[in-house]
């Protein structure tokens, strides 16, 4: 209690009775008790992993260290190879293969196995997952806006590592049924058990949000206390205030569960609370939600720094473990040991085979739990399976589970009503089953469509719902799927997805009976909140057609079902297979679909395939359909109302459909957008089409136009009549700068990319610096695109300098790019430029700079083709003499020498070489320079050797020099050596022996 700051406030907040109780207790337990996972969940719980994703740059591949291994996942070999540095290619991983730096896997479970393999145990193995959406993603105002590399680095954490994270706000997302609520329960208990100073508050938002009365105020601590279940008076509220505002006596941790299950207004209120608490002493906030993309945007809009995790599905190995534990915990089997494991493996393998094209469904914890329950019941009485494993999708599992539950209810009901005559038995079965689905469907519809239920339900159905709600409160209805009420008002389904399934089933039957309901249902397609309900609704409608069902569940062989008969066959909503393909953006089916008249055919909702693609913002499907309808007479504004509205109103390029079409290279869609809704830049078109969109008015975060993000020649040709080719962004970059910067991240192995650049050359100034004085050539050299540099060299100055005074060649050396150095050097001059040096050896080559430091300006390099790799190794700090010697041999012929009389002596004095390497260098020097030359002080190279005590140098020079030659001070080399006796004794002795031999030879001659 010593941590309490406001003693006066404390005394007012606590009664005498409470104070005495506190004095007698060693523990203060504040707030509502933490909830446990329901039932026996802990008995069959499997530890989970969470995935965190980070941006990755293609430069990490280019500058890979020998100890790094990159494992790619989620795409084909062709996509990976587009981004690998030449000459590397990716290899499909196989067990016991030799070491390969770039690997491809098709099952994410293989990642852990690779790390355990001998060739990779001591390596840094990075997992790069393919995110197609990353090709069009960008972050305003950051360098990431230029990053087209569609891979993200994935890092996995177990539950303990996750709970130890220090981030202030943590978002945990996961697909429906992935176990987010169970994890939030376990997390709350773990945090409390590891630190008694933590006041952990777990809030199940759908239940607690109803408790907030009046106008929500994110800064109102009393409202927050009500939301958290904390008492709003007395000692508990006092300590809550102190902990929030001052961080004492408790460290508050708030866990917000089921964020996606509350209304939009409620979500906005909760995020405002998070933003407000982020400025207080609250230790940590967790948000558990089904979807994360919209949530993350909303959080970032409030300038909250958050860490985002995704709860992963079960691995293949965990499926068997879970089913075995579940059967044991539920008492659903009478077998054990090897017999049980065999039964488990047989059951799971059957489903693996049935769902081999859709493993993600089987790995969902809630779905495998439903399978385990249905299959487990058959093992109790040794009966045949309850489930038929012929289905392949999430919908099939829910439908079969619902049928299983209805059969359980049906059998129980019939046993209770065994007096019924056999003649009416079948009628009773049908009635009871209809009653089961009707009651659950009506309850679910009111839960999911709570805010718009009066638009969907009739008056008699609303009255029936009130009666059913009372029955739920009394415990008369549940079926093992509904568990009481939330705050006495809203039925609590055991999982939201069950409510979505039964709501979809209810709507499916209602729409068929009452087509006027179609308009109300159609409005929900615009909202992400109802996405799962609409998905189930499409499944129900498609169930009557094999082709429709195959498209919905993305069956690998669906294209084989496209026959003349199936092409015209509608589903229960009057939709052709093309409607479904457009709705789900199945471009493979659209490509193979030959019936053009279906393109404008309307279903019972009055929608064409084009309208569905527009409403659901399925832009790739729109692109395909636009190409098929290029010659048709269509009112495009009417067919594409969502696109039209976006294009006319949205000026932020990141949100503009025009930008998306350009970035994704959707040229057919782009052609329609430009031709139908935009105006060209000529004065004539500005006058007659003033109501149309000015393409240049759509700008990005750096004030760049859409022309800066083109991906193909076709897109450039479409855009040029509509765009200002002289436009620059806020840094002075032109569209060509962007192309130069993005080149390493694009598909550089496609010839079309270079056609795109050459087309730019016709319309844009090539050799133009931006505000940092970077020309496209400098940008491209730094980016490392060899082929693009070739194109730019023909049109650019090679002596242009950036703001740091670096030429393209200097940038290439600094970036350690041998191929770029080799390419640039032949385009350089032998002589330095009048106003600036071409190359400064002392900057990138400090070691060799000692040798050449006396050359004029240390400035000349001409052709380094032979030694570019060596040059980069030296620039990286390698000091092997062999490498230095190779570089010296290559550089020496091209060094610009203005005073050859002093060169030999200086090189001897400044040499970084020793031993035999030193002798080799001196021999090279003697081939080029006259040994008898002397500097301004009259010192020859022999005088220098005498001064520094270089015996090898003297041995090489003596045959070429007059030993009696004197310098300006009248001293011979021998006299210089004697004067520095301690340092040059060996040299002096060498000179004495040479002088004796010289005298003898002279006398003899």
UniProtKB/TrEMBL annotation:
The keyword Repeat applies. It comes from the Eukaryota. Keywords: ANK repeat, Exocytosis, Membrane, Neurotoxin, Presynaptic neurotoxin, Repeat, Target cell membrane, Target membrane, Toxin. GO terms for biological process: exocytosis. InterPro entries: Ankyrin_rpt (IPR002110), Ankyrin_rpt-contain_sf (IPR036770), NACHT_NTPase (IPR007111), P-loop_NTPase (IPR027417). Coiled coil: none annotated. GO terms for cellular component: host cell presynaptic membrane; other organism cell membrane. Its main location: membrane. Signal peptide: none annotated. SUPFAM superfamilies: Ankyrin repeat, P-loop containing nucleoside triphosphate hydrolases. Residues 169-329 form the NACHT domain. It is found in: Target cell membrane. Homotetramer in membranes. PANTHER family: ANKYRIN REPEAT AND PROTEIN KINASE DOMAIN-CONTAINING PROTEIN, ANKYRIN REPEAT-CONTAINING PROTEIN-RELATED. Belongs to the cationic peptide 01 (latrotoxin) family. 03 (alpha-latrotoxin) subfamily. This is Alpha-latrotoxin. The lineage of its organism: Eukaryota, Metazoa, Ecdysozoa, Arthropoda, Chelicerata.
């Amino acid at each position: 209690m010593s941590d309490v700051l406001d003693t006066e406030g404390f005394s007012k907040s606590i009664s005498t009775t409470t104070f005495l109780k506190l004095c007698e207790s060693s523990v203060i337990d504040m707030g509502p008790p933490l909830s446990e996972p329901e039932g026996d969940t802990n008995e069959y719980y499997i530890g989970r992993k969470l995935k965190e994703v980070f941006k990755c740059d293609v430069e990490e591949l280019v500058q890979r260290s020998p100890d790094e291994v990159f494992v790619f996942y989620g795409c084909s070999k062709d996509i990976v190879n587009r981004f690998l540095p030449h000459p590397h290619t990716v290899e499909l991983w196989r067990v016991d293969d030799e070491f390969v730096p770039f690997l491809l896997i098709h099952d994410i479970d293989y990642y852990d196995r690779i790390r355990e393999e001998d060739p990779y145990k001591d390596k840094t193995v990075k997992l790069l997952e393919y995110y197609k959406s990353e090709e069009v993603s960008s972050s305003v105002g950051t360098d990431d806006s230029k990053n087209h590399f569609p891979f993200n680095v994935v890092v996995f954490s177990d539950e303990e590592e996750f709970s130890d994270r220090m981030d202030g706000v943590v978002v945990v997302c996961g697909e429906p049924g992935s176990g987010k609520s169970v994890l939030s329960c376990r997390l709350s208990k773990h945090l409390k058990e590891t630190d008694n100073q933590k006041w952990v508050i777990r809030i199940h938002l759908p239940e607690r949000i109803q408790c907030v009365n009046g106008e929500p105020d994110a800064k109102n601590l009393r409202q927050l206390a009500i939301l958290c279940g904390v008492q709003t008076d007395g000692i508990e509220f006092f300590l809550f205030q102190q902990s929030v505002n001052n961080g004492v006596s408790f460290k508050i941790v708030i866990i917000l569960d089921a964020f996606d299950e509350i209304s939009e207004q409620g979500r906005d209120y909760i995020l405002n609370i998070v933003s407000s608490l982020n400025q207080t002493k609250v230790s940590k906030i967790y948000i558990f939600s089904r979807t994360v993309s919209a949530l993350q945007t909303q959080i970032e809009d409030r300038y909250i720094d958050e860490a985002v995790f995704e709860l992963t599905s079960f691995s293949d190995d965990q499926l068997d473990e879970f089913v075995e534990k579940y059967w044991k915990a539920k008492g659903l089997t009478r077998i054990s040991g090897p017999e049980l494991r065999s039964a488990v493996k047989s059951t799971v393998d059957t489903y693996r085979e049935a769902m081999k094209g859709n493993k993600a469904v089987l790995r969902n914890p809630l779905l495998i739990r439903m399978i385990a329950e249905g299959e487990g019941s058959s093992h109790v009485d040794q009966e045949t399976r309850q489930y038929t494993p012929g289905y392949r999708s999430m919908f099939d599992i829910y439908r079969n589970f619902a049928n299983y539950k209805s059969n359980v209810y049906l059998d129980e009901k019939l046993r209770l009503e065994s007096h019924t005559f056999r003649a009416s038995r079948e009628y009773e079965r049908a009635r009871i089953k209809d009653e089961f689905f009707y009651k659950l469907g009506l309850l679910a519809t009111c839960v999911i469509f709570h805010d718009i239920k009066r638009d969907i339900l009739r008056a008699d159905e609303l009255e029936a719902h009130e009666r059913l709600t009372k029955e739920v409160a009394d415990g008369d209805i549940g079926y093992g799927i509904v568990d009481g009420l939330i705050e006495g008002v809203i039925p609590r389904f055991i999982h939201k997805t069950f409510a979505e399934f039964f709501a979809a089933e209810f709507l499916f039957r209602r729409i068929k009976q009452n087509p006027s309901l179609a308009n109300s249902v159609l409005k929900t397609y615009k909202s992400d909140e109802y996405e799962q309900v609409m998905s189930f609704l499409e499944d129900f409608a498609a169930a009557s057609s094999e082709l429709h069902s195959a498209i919905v569940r993305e069956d690998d062989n669906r294209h084989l079902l496209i026959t003349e008969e199936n092409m015209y066959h509608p589903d229960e909503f009057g939709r052709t297979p093309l409607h479904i393909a457009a709705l789900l953006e199945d471009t493979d089916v659209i490509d193979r679909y030959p019936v053009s008249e279906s393109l404008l055919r309307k279903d019972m909702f009055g929608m064409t395939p084009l309208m569905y693609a527009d409403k659901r913002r399925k832009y790739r499907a729109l692109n395909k359909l636009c190409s098929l309808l290029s010659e048709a007479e269509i009112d495009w504004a009417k067919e594409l109302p969502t696109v039209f509205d976006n294009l006319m109103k949205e000026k932020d390029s990141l949100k503009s459909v025009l930008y998306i079409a350009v970035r994704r290279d959707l040229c057919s869609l782009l052609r329609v957008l430009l031709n139908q809704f935009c105006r060209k830049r000529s004065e004539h078109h500005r006058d007659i089409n003033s109501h149309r969109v000015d393409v240049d008015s759509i700008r990005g975060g750096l004030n760049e136009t859409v022309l800066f993000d083109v991906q193909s020649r076709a897109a450039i040709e479409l855009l040029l009549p509509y765009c200002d080719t002289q436009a620059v962004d806020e840094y002075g970059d032109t569209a060509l700068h962007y192309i130069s910067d993005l080149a390493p991240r694009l598909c550089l192995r496609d010839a079309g990319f270079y056609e795109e650049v050459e087309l730019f050359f016709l319309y844009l100034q090539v050799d133009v610096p931006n505000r940092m004085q970077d020309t496209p050539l400098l940008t491209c050299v730094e980016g490392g695109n060899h082929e693009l540099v070739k194109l730019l060299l023909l049109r650019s100055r090679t002596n242009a300098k950036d703001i740091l005074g670096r030429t393209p060649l200097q940038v290439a050396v600094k970036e350690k790019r041998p191929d770029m150095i080799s390419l640039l050097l032949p385009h350089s001059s032998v002589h330095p430029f009048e106003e600036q040096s071409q190359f400064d050896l002392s900057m990138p080559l400090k070691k060799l700079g000692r040798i050449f430091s006396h050359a004029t300006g240390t400035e000349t390099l001409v052709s380094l083709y032979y030694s570019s790799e060596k040059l980069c190794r030296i620039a990286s700090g390698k000091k092997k003499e062999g490498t230095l010697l190779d570089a010296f041999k290559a550089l020496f012929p091209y060094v610009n020498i203005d005073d050859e009389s002093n060169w030999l002596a200086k090189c001897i004095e400044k040499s970084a070489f020793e031993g035999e390497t030193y002798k080799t260098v001196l021999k090279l020097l003697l081939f080029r320079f006259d040994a008898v030359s002397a500097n301004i002080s009259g010192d020859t190279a022999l005088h220098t050797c005498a001064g520094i005590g270089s015996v090898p140098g003297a041995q090489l020079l003596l045959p070429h020099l007059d030993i009696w030659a004197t310098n300006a001070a009248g001293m011979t080399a021998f006299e210089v050596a004697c004067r520095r006796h301690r340092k040059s004794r060996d040299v002096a002795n060498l000179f004495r022996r040479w002088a004796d031999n010289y005298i003898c030879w002279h006398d003899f001659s």
